[in-house]
Amino acid sequence: MPDVHTQHLAPYRQMAELLDTLHVGLCLFDEMDRVLLWNHAFLRLFPEHTGHIRVGEPYRDNLARFYRGRLHATELNNIEEYIASGIRRHRSQTMPFVFEHHGKWVKVASDPIPGIGRLRVWTPIARPDSMLSPQSGEDAMMPFLTDDGDAAIQSDAGHRIVRANSRFLQLFDLKSEEEARGRSLSSLYADAWSRLSSDEEASRHWRLSLAEAERFCGNPFQLALPGDRWVRCLQKMMPDGGKLTTMADISDMKQLQRKLEEARNAAEIANRAKDHFLAIVSHELRTPMNGILGMLDLLNEEELDQHRSEKVEVARQSAQALLGLLDDILAFSRMASGRIELEWSATDLSSLIATTARLIEPRALKKGITLRWTVSPDVPSEVMMDPDRLRQVLLNVLGNAVKFTEKGEVVLSARMESPRPGRRPVLHIAVSDTGIGIPLTAQQRIFEPFVQADSRVGRRFGGTGLGLAICRQVVEAMGGSISVQSTEGIGSRFSVTIPCDLPVDSSAIETPKARRELPPLKILVVDDNAVNREVAKLLLEKLGASATTIADGAAAVVAASQEPFDLILLDIEMPEMDGYQVAQAIRDTALVNASTPIVAVTAHSGEHFRALSQGAGMQGFITKPLRLASLADEISSAIGL
To answer: Which of 234, 467, 519, 618 can pair with 613 through a Cys bridge, CB separation 3.0 to 4.6 Å?
Structure first.
């Protein structure tokens, strides 16, 4: 049976029984268009379903029986198209329509039922020709057949046209009303296609669409005409059994829709090209940055005199700033495309705030300003949060506060707003500074991309103007908000609010980890870039491991078949044989290292590349530039320490 709770169906069973007494048919379908329940009146109206319909039956099977009972033998070849049209009508019906079946006239209405599917109700109605009124006949049709509105025709009970206005004649390229009288709309439509177009497939498709639409009077439908013309049709059943058909020319609207679709497709192509370009830029820039930062980290670990140490630190900070600008541009690009990935986990907010602030503290001390942070006692020890995204926001806002403050202090404070009934607790974080301030006219614009409060700010302090735009997108993705209050020359206060929850399992809390100590491992390093190989080798040796370096994928597979290793550090982007292929080759063959942990090394970041690496049989994933602490953590995790 379809997956709908029994208690949800109880009201509809009662409705079905009630409608049975009124001889009104009912059928309920789930969201997958499968039958859930029906009443006896439904079977009386549609006897072909008796003994065949069952719970869980797809609506298309229901339609197949319906059409087999009413189509002529010559039409059975088109039954699949009629079924497809019926399914579309079932899913999108917005107003009732009437039709005749086995001599009975019914009006069908259909409504979506949230959480269940769709309800269809068939109401028997009197035969239209028994509803004659004094206003029936030609006079009643005159307002619809005027020449200053839509194209319109009146047809009799035998589907023969008896009246047509000039708009209809123009639409079908007819010289006089006499050419239309006595003909059916379907025959005129077929003639129009055969006369004006040689596209047999399109002609057949639209003729079938018209035939199917005419079976169900009152349901609006669209038709294509040769010459890139379109009409929206509506048919109304008249008291004498005939029909009034109106056709509104929607060609201009269709052309506009097509242009919008083309523009959207062009924009998607441009976005894909941009993403591809940024991926290449990311890889090509991170590759040399890996060498620069790796060597600077190693130099920083050595005993240098003060003069050389200061130079190394300046170079390291400059490289780190360049990497930060690159990360901002790539992050904004991903977010602008709607690709914000959130990973909620139990997080120690006090610890996260403290460790983040300590990362910024050296910059404040160097400028001679005070950086303070306070966490209110009402903040729980554990909160469900995306710690990486929150850290990203705090680093950006705190970093800006320190950057734009020359004297005084920067203060970060955090508190938790108690939840109101039916609401989640809200985390409030404020960062205040005594810096240069932001002009009132710029305070609403600074959260827009590439905007800075003053052009002089960019020249003096640097930056892309993307940081706060990224913060806003991240905070809003978490359901929160970010705002600013500022006075020029006095300072600024940035406020962040984020709704959050308390974790169910307190053991799931995330705590920062110190750099892990590694045992003396034997590691195979595979990278086509000589500088990257040297950096990885030196970093591994600093961690107490020994490294064998290989320059290409094919040689790596050979090396892995001859000598056992404790771990393989494998670059993903390599010519001829990339890292995924290398990993697969090592895993698929009974080699010495078939089960050796493999850590992917790449300049690409994001869950997509991590998933690809896991799919290729790798146990770890680390992005360039390689840093001592993150490299130690990833290796430890991969080997199970």
So the answer is: 618
Q: How far apart are CA 540 and CA 548, in angstroms?
A: 10
Helix (H, G, I), strand (E, B) or coil at 417: strand
Contact assessment for residue 213 and residue 128, using Cβ atoms and an 8 Å cutoff: no
The whole-angstrom separation of Cα 40 and Cα 27 is: 10
Task: Kindly report the pTM of this predicted structure.
Answer: 0.40
Q: What tokens does 114 get? A: 């949230």
Cβ distance 185 to 159 under 8 Å? yes
Helix (H, G, I), strand (E, B) or coil at 19: helix
3-state helix, strand, coil in the chain (%, to 5): 45, 20, 30
- pLDDT tens digit sequence for 332-362: 665 555 556 677 788 888 888 888 888 888 8
Distance (Å, rounded) from C-alpha 119 to C-alpha 113?
7
Q: Is 135:143 a contact under the CB 8 Å cutoff?
A: no
- H/E element, 523: strand 522-526
**CA–CA dist 226, 193 (Å, integer):** 6
Q: What is the DSSP code string of 233-263? A: EEEEE-TTS-EEEEEEE-HHHHHHHHHHHHH
Q: Which residue has the tokens 């308390």?
A: 502
| 221/217 Cα distance (integer angstroms) | 10
Q: How confident is the model over 91-109, as pLDDT tens digits?
A: 887 777 788 887 788 888 8
- Res 459: pLDDT: 41
Beta strands 409-417 and 426-433 are: antiparallel
CB atoms within 10 A of CB 203: 19
**CA neighbor of 367 nearest in space, from 316, 413, 408, 319:** 408
Pairwise pLDDT comparison (159 vs 314), residue with the higher score: 159
Per-residue pLDDT tens for 437-478?
888 877 777 877 655 544 444 444 444 456 788 788 888 888
